[in-house]
Recover the amino acids of this structure.
RNA sequence: CGGGGCAUGGCGCAGUCCGGCUAGCGCACCUGCUUUGGGAGCAGGGGGUCGCAGGUUCGAAUCCUGCUGCCCCGACCA
């Protein structure tokens, strides 16, 4: 298994592809733009799901499931929503195939055309709000706090494994509230949840803020987001949370009777993160030796590699390996004993390193004699010999250290790549270097659009609680009250 | 949809310009022996409608025509 990996410096995007494919996270499928998520990659996603799902439940949400197909007419009910998604929808027009009359193959049966075409959901606001109409009558039915784990389809022109695929997996929360304040608070709360997840589980520092009008979700009044900085200096939107106002309630006629017995439209939010987080995870921590997974998300936290010369030694070190595995598992540590007799230790070292396993324990005949093991850290690549006594504590401690170290490294990287620009020339120079750029902007979509056209940089976010600071727009020179964050983005 | 490139065992490629006899190499795979503390060595072995359809020719992976698929770069996007 020769793992030749492009380096980040030589070819960043090839480096990313190599890791995803060679670490067995995912591969391209026979369907253009759609990926197969392989068991190892899916195991990481499952861990993300589990952590997020618990956070959603802890904040009062329940899971439900809505249909994959959405009647076309639903889509046109919210004007800006259609406009936003129309260009990337897969449409089901027929419901039957038949044998080709020329004898070869199968064709669409033209006589089986759907009366109303179905859209494969690119997001579920419309079908969900159509449903909520029947669920909500009174203020007593509110708030309605629902999440769904689902797949969605957006017909992208260019795709990249995890970062942008035609079909992707995600969760979408859809909530209904009696007041505007409550809905805004919900959107902000979920942004907080995403922030905590990114930082505590993924060890990925994020900036929080709101989107400019240009970048806002189609149909939202306000879009909140978390943005992370990748190692090539490009920003990646890692999660979004939307305050939808009464837009969908009005479009789908969802009203409730308030305590004063008056009909009111409900207030809405929606929020989501997707398998794109897998891409973010790869690009935040991995290095030129392969994938690096933070311990909290690693499907295998510790791999034990036995070293031996003959069958007798093989059995002896494997027995010790099994014993250690049991101790660690009792402490809720995820362990794999790689007792394959078909690969050499050196091969296994490289393989598990490439797959990002946080800790590797090697046990050989020498270790048996000295009651020791060799432990190697994936994040620092350091190796050290430890006594078997107290090993569980040591491992637990090291996993914790790795989790923190990965976060700190990523945070340092972001700080080192966050700049301030006060003039257009400065901005032009900095944007070429990559990273986040804090700069003044006059607040108009036109200016943002021009900056995007001239530099490919967009406003990633307007800081939520950013310091107010008088200044002049770097592009137009018009007055500005606050710096916003620019970057080139995925 | 524009601009480039590619299509040859599971994967990565050479061969194509200048047609030639049995289509080759690396990795992976199978068998055996020796190995095993950072990607093992040797020996033997299996596996190919050279993307598809026509054409030229005694003879086509190679030349001609027409298709099809994929990748990369741009416009769109989480």
């Amino acid at each position: 298994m020769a793992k030749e990996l492009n380096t980040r410096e030589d070819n960043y995007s090839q480096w990313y592809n190599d890791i995803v494919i060679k670490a067995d996270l995912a591969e391209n499928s026979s369907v253009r733009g759609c990926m197969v998520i392989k068991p190892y990659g899916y195991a990481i996603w499952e861990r993300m799901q589990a952590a997020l799902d618990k956070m959603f439940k802890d904040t009062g949400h329940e899971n439900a499931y809505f249909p994959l197909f959405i009647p076309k007419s639903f889509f046109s009910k919210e004007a800006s929503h259609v406009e936003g998604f129309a260009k990337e929808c897969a449409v089901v027009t027929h419901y039957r195939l038949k044998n080709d009359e020329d004898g070869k193959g199968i064709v669409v049966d033209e006589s089986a055309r759907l009366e109303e075409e179905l859209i494969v959901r690119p997001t579920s606001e419309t079908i969900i709000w159509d449903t909520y109409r029947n669920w909500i009558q009174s203020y007593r039915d509110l708030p309605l706090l629902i999440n769904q784990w689902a797949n969605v389809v957006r017909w992208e022109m260019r795709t990249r494994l995890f970062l942008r695929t035609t079909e992707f997996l995600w969760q979408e929360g859809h909530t209904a509230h009696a007041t505007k304040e409550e809905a805004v608070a919900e959107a902000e709360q979920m942004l907080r949840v995403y922030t905590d997840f990114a930082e505590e589980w993924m060890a990925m520092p994020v900036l929080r803020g709101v989107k400019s009008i240009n970048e806002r979700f189609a149909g939202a009044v306000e879009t909140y987001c978390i943005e992370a900085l990748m190692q090539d200096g490009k920003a990646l939107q890692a999660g979004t949370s939307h305050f939808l106002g009464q837009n969908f309630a009005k479009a789908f006629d969802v009203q409730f009777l308030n305590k004063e017995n008056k009909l009111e439209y409900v207030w809405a939010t929606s929020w989501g993160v997707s398998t794109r987080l897998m891409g973010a995870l790869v690009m935040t921590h991995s290095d030129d030796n392969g994938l690096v997974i933070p311990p909290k998300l690693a499907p295998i936290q510790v791999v034990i590699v036995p070293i031996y010369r003959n069958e007798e030694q093989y059995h002896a070190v494997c027995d010790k390996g099994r014993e250690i595995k049991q101790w660690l598992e009792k402490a809720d540590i995820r362990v794999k004993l790689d007792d394959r007799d078909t690969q050499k230790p050196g091969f296994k070292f490289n393989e598990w390193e490439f797959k990002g396993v946080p800790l590797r324990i090697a046990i050989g005949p020498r270790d048996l004699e000295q009651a020791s093991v060799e432990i190697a850290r994936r994040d620092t690549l350091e190796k050290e010999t430890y006594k078997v006594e107290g090993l569980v504590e040591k491992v637990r401690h090291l996993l914790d250290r790795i989790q923190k170290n990965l976060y700190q490294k990523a945070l340092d990287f972001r700080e080192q790549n966050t700049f301030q620009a006060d003039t257009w020339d400065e901005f032009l120079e900095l944007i070429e270097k990559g990273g986040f750029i804090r700069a003044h902007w006059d607040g108009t979509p036109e200016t943002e659009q021009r900056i995007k056209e001239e530099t490919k940089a967009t406003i990633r976010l307007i800081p939520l609680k950013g310091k107010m600071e008088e200044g002049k727009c770097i592009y137009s020179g018009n007055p500005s009250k606050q710096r916003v964050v620019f970057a080139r983005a995925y």
